[in-house]
Amino acid sequence: MFKNYLKVAFRNLWRHRGFSFLNIAGLAIGLTAGFLILIYVSFELSYDRFHSKTDQIYRVVSDLETPTGLLKESKPAWAVPYHMQKEFAEVESAVRLWKISLLANKNGERYNERGLAVDSDFFKVFDFVLLTGDREKVLVEPFSIVLSESMAKKYFGNQNPIGRPLVIEDFGFVGNVTGVMEDMPGNTHIAADILVSITTFFTENYSPGMNDNWEGYSPDAYVLLQPNVSPKVLESKFPDFLERNDGDNMRKREVYVTLNLEPLKDVYLHSDRYRTISGNINNVYILSIVAIFILLIACVNFINLTTARSIERAKEVGMRKVIGAKKIQLAFQFIGESTIVCVIAFLFTIMLTALVLPFFNDMSGKTG
């Protein structure tokens, strides 16, 4: 019986192949458009959520009250993370991330690369995959650098890069490669191809007093809190912390600082801070609604076309009833045909999505 249903269903689809093509194509195109938008939305919502301790990681941000107004800064002063880790037991680790452009020189060829100068606990706070090297030691010593996998291949080919030198021309030092990490994924707002130990820039040749600099606001800062620590309770201790360390200076400069903790998972889509490169949660909401409407329209269109065709088959239904067909058998027949159309449309949707996705990623600026 089931085999007969399939035979009749495919026979009807083939007999009316123009209509069948229109129905399948309409459903497949609608599903493809909806799926592409939902893939984009899912990617946006996944930013920075792959870290195992995401719920314990917070970005330190600053409100600067000046005589001319309030500035919502995405960064604290250089000294803040360093002293936070020393003075608060609630802070397990504190990491500064200073975005820098690096001019690397290899055998006379120069390349501008995305760089980050970071504290030694970088791989303790964030779960970026380190392929080679000790997570606790690769960024401790001055002039230590960690390359992404693509950078390691670019500069050293198939050779082992560990222990090899790489000239960083614009900063005037020779870096020592201490580790290789996987290329950072696309769904993170932290992006770099080369990591440099931040102690490199605290040597006598550069700025030895940066750990006590309460005026410079160059690096982003992240803290990993101990388990079960309330960020609000910790924030309540920041005014005394600033008063102890920088109170006189704030009054002298007439710049009064308030420190806040911003959850890592909210930085990309929800932050309104100055100098934050981020997405837009409103766009995510709008696109989600658009995707749902496209899918609904595709489904309604499919139902309307299928219903219109069923009226034309009234004679067939009457003949089947005359020869003894029951209602349940007729129902299975029509449901089976609709199911076959849906399955075929879904298969075309998968193929179309795979075909269009690279172009969609280029258009949307996403690589994940």
Present the secondary structure layout.
Elements: H1 2-15, H2 17-45, E1 57-66, E2 69-73, H3 79-87, E3 91-106, E4 109-118, H4 122-125, E5 130-132, E6 144-148, H5 149-156, E7 165-168, E8 173-181, E9 194-197, E10 220-225, H6 231-235, H7 238-253, E11 256-263, H8 264-270, H9 281-312, H10 314-322, H11 327-364
Parallel strand pairs: 4-9, 6-8
Antiparallel strand pairs: 1-2, 1-10, 1-11, 3-4, 3-7, 3-10, 5-8, 6-9, 7-8
Helix pairs in contact: 1-2, 1-11, 2-9, 2-11
Features:
368 residues; alpha+beta; elongated; 2 domains; single chain; six-stranded mixed β-barrel
Word description of this protein:
The chain has 368 residues and is of the alpha+beta class. It folds into two domains: 127 residues; 225 residues, no CATH class. Helix content is 46%, strand content 22%. It has eleven helices and eleven strands. The protein has a six-stranded mixed β-barrel with strand order 3-4-9-6-8-7. A hairpin with a 2-residue loop joins strand 3 and strand 4. The longest helix is centred in the C-terminal third of the chain and has 38 residues. The mean pLDDT is 87.
